[in-house]
């Protein structure tokens, strides 16, 4: 109690008030204010420094992140490139069969051909070989027409009833040449070239290489004659699945007949596949077998004009053969024989005038004209038929009946039928009554069918 009284006594309170007043004076003095300002400035400066340091740290962090992202992206790109290169350099490349052909050709020696022959000898040998080894019998005239047709175009159409040996003729020719024929069964739904040569499968990363593509590739290496059969060629529309081939075969320069296979190029692609393309070789012929019934499409003029047609309407009589031979004939030698025949056995001026006369008659009467293509085919075909053992008028008769008079079927049949007697009389007067039997037979058949 005494202590409390002492604390709250008046003298003690006076001393405490004096202390407060002194303290306040000190705190509100000019020196104190300057100190306050200095402290505040120091605090502000320190805060600014902290902010600057934080921003610098953030920028450095962003920079580090960006650099890491760049490095990561670069790494990913390198990985993608490495993966693609790995795919391209792996033994499992997309054209395994074509690359295998590269290896086989590289490891094989030079080929030996049996080129000492003539066109007539080829016809005789082929006929005898077919009969002896394959039991396939053909008239010598059909063989001559077949061989002569090969000299005109790379597309031959074999027409005739079932069982007359259309496919067998082309098959036998490949056997005779010691280079098996490739038979491609045409499917009704085919619409584009990939149906013939194959396509690239994105899932398996491989190209589906058809037998035809392999043969096209191999033919670019070798000088052999290659025969491809388009079996039942008009069971689908020829102008669809064979369109690119038709266009390429029209190009006069063989080395520019580029067939598109793929749209890009890999390092491991086969040697002869350049920029995804391959040359359609000049030593390959396409033999189409055709049926004319309700299950097939009509063959257009575009196809007929570019092709040679051979009608096999009946089976030949079997005959005995003592001996027969095969012959590995080079395409170079075959072309040499053709050019020699076309130089030696040119169509006579008299028959050229006859051809021009009948051309004018058909143009005036039916608006049918030969055209430059057919005229050139006649000039190429007739000499080779003669070299094969045929006659000049017989060859003219054959090609006019198939390439020109066929166009009568596209005209008004009522009108054509009414003019047939005059047409036959004109042909007999121009060529003779005993000549042009195929033309007259064809015209009479039109009259019957009209």
Question: How many distinct folded domains?
Answer: 3
Query: Residue ranges: pLDDT <50 for 5 or more in a row?
Result: 64-91
CATH class of the largest domain: Alpha Beta
Give the overall form.
Answer: elongated
The total of beta strands comes to 9
Structural class: alpha/beta
Following the backbone from N to C, one meets helices and strands in this order, namely HHHHHHEHEHEEHEHHEEEHEHHHHHH
Q: Give the proportion of residues in helices.
A: 55-70%
Domain ATPase dynein-related AAA: 156-306
Pfam families: AAA_5 (PF07728)
Protein name: ATPase dynein-related AAA domain-containing protein
Keywords: Membrane, Transmembrane, Transmembrane helix
Compact overview of the structure:
The protein is an alpha/beta fold and 450 residues long. 58% of the residues lie in helices and 8% in strands. Strands 2-5-8-1-9 form a 5-stranded parallel β-sheet, with helices on both faces. Strands 3-4 form a two-stranded antiparallel sheet. It has a two-stranded antiparallel ribbon with strand order 6-7.
Describe the fold and architecture.
By secondary structure, the protein is of the alpha/beta class. It has three domains: 1-89; 96-311, P-loop containing nucleotide triphosphate hydrolases (Rossmann fold), CATH 3.40.50; 345-449. It has helices at 2-7, 10-27, 30-89, 96-107, 119-134, 140-152, 166-176, 194-197, 211-219, 238-241, 243-250, 301-306, 331-344, 349-366, 371-387, 392-403, 413-431, 437-449; strands at residues 155-159, 182-185, 200-201, 206-207, 226-231, 258-260, 277-279, 284-290, 308-311. The strands form three sheets. The protein has a five-stranded parallel β-sheet, sandwiched between helices. The protein has a two-stranded antiparallel sheet with strand order 3-4. It is elongated. The N and C termini lie far apart (152 Å). Mean pLDDT is 87; it is low at 64-91.
């Amino acid at each position: 109690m005494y202590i409390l009284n002492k604390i709250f006594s008046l003298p003690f309170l006076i001393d405490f008030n004096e202390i407060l007043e002194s303290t306040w004076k000190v705190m509100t003095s000019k020196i104190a204010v300057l100190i306050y300002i200095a402290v505040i400035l120091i605090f502000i400066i320190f805060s600014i420094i902290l902010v600057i340091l934080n921003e610098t740290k953030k920028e450095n962090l962003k920079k580090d992140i960006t650099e890491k992202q760049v490095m990561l992206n670069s790494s990913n790109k390198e990985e993608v490139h490495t993966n693609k290169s790995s795919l391209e350099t792996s033994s499992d490349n997309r054209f395994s069969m074509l690359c295998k052909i590269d290896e086989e050709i590289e490891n094989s020696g030079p080929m030996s051909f049996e080129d000492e022959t003539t066109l007539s000898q080829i016809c005789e040998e082929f006929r005898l070989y077919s009969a002896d080894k394959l039991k396939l019998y053909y008239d010598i005239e059909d063989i001559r027409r077949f061989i002569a047709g090969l000299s005109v175009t790379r597309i031959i159409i074999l027409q005739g009833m079932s069982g007359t040996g259309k496919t067998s003729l082309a098959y036998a020719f490949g056997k005779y040449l010691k280079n098996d024929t490739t038979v491609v069964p045409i499917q009704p739904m085919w619409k584009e070239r990939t149906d013939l040569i194959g396509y690239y499968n994105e899932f398996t990363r491989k190209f589906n290489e058809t037998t035809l593509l392999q043969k096209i590739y191999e033919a670019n290496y070798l000088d052999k004659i290659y025969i491809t059969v388009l079996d039942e060629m008009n069971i689908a529309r020829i102008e669809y699945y064979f369109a690119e081939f038709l266009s390429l075969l029209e190009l006069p320069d063989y080395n520019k007949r580029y067939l598109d296979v793929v749209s890009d190029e890999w390092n491991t692609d086969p040697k002869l596949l350049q920029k995804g393309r391959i040359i359609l070789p000049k030593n390959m012929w396409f033999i189409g077998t055709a049926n004319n019934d309700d299950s097939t499409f009509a063959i257009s003029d575009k196809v007929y004009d570019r092709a040679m047609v051979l009608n096999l309407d009946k089976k030949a009589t079997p005959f005995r053969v003592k001996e027969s031979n095969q012959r590995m004939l080079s395409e170079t030698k075959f072309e040499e024989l053709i050019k020699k025949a076309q130089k030696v056995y040119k169509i006579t001026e008299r028959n050229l005038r006859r051809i021009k006369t009948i051309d004018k008659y058909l143009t005036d009467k039916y608006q049918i004209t030969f055209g430059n293509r057919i005229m050139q085919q006649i000039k190429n075909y007739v000499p080779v038929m003669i070299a094969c053992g045929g006659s000049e008028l017989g060859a003219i008769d054959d090609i006019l009946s198939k390439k020109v008079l066929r166009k009568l079927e596209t005209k008004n049949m009522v009108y054509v039928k009414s003019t047939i007697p005059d047409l036959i009389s004109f042909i007999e007067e121009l060529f003779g009554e005993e000549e042009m039997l195929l033309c007259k037979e064809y015209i009479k058949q039109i009259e019957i069918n009209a």
